[in-house]
Design brief:
The protein starts with a helix and ends in a 12-residue tail after the last helix. Helix 6 runs parallel beside helix 9 and helix 8 packs antiparallel against helix 9. The protein folds into two domains: about 110 residues; about 130 residues. Helix content is about 70%, strand content about 0%. By secondary structure, it is mainly α.
């Protein structure tokens, strides 16, 4: 017999408590980085964004430098799992790493902290190598035969990296995208009709962010690549996603109008419509 609702809730609560307890041990330096059993078990559990962010929030600014080695180790374990494991551990490691980036970047942004985001996450000398390996692996998830869930998780992680600061030009993580181009992976997503329908919006939003990074002060490789892109399938997918999103936004705007307003649109629509069929007020 299956578990009852109460039993399932109890089981979920126990897993939540377990992952939070493991986070506490990590940040209290109670875990040896050679304890493979601990790390393998951690990445079998669903990542908990709210609790991870809460733990980072509670670290004082003075303690951030002291705990840097702990965060460096945590990030290293996330990247190692993503690049060397398969299945649910990879998904959970991507999510965990994304949540950790969010938590540390938010602390820096909100409190105007002076610490170096790259140094806190990777160590000042490790970021370039780590991210080169990681981005190559993540791009393979987008271009090879992996599940739509993992593709969505990968795109969400890339978007997290690109949006950790209010001003994208001040985001140090964007440099990893400039040095490790993901343009081909994004256009591959747009080429595929099925993938484009599922992941197209995230791919186009990410591409727009990448194109606009420091575009007025340096040569942006994504802008150059898009300007010379000679791939009808990718361009059609790009146009399809833009048209669909504009249509959705127009519909949302129309639905948000006061009840009295649609009659005005109807009036103007009727002026230009035929007797046979009245066209909608906005048509794409």
């Amino acid at each position: 017999m299956g578990k009852s609702g109460n039993e399932r809730r109890k089981s979920v609560n126990e897993l939540v408590c377990k992952v939070v307890s493991m986070y506490d041990k990590i940040f209290k330096s109670e875990v040896d980085d050679s304890n493979d059993e601990f790390w393998e078990e951690l990445f079998l559990l669903w990542a908990n964004k709210s609790q991870l962010c809460l733990i980072v929030d509670q670290i004082s600014i003075d303690q951030m430098q002291q705990i840097k080695q702990v965060i460096n180790c945590f990030v290293s374990k996330c990247i190692t799992t993503i690049t060397h494991q398969e299945g649910i551990r990879v998904y959970n490691a991507i999510q965990t790493f994304g949540f950790l980036i969010c938590a540390v970047a938010k602390k820096k942004e909100v409190l105007h902290c002076s610490f170096n985001l790259i140094d806190i996450l990777f160590g000042i000398d490790n970021g370039k190598t780590y991210m080169q390996i990681l981005i190559a692996r993540l791009c393979s998830f987008l271009t090879e035969n992996y599940s739509p869930v993992l593709k969505s998780c990968t795109l969400e992680f890339f978007l997290t990296m690109a949006t950790v600061t209010e001003n994208i030009n001040e985001n140090p993580l964007m440099e990893y995208f400039m040095n490790n181009c993901i343009f081909e992976a994004l256009t591959f997503i747009l080429e595929k009709c099925v993938d484009g329908n599922i992941h197209g919006r995230a791919a186009v939003v990410l591409l727009a962010l990448l194109i606009n990074y420091q575009k007025s002060v340096r040569e942006n490789p994504y802008m150059v690549k898009l300007s010379i892109l000679d791939n009808d399938l990718a361009l059609n997918g790009y146009s399809f996603v833009l048209s669909r999103e504009l249509h959705r936004l127009n519909r949302s705007f129309e639905n948000a109008l006061p009840n009295s307003t649609p009659s005005l649109w109807t009036f103007f629509g009727s002026v230009f419509s035929s007797d046979v069929q009245q066209l909608p007020s906005i048509q794409l």
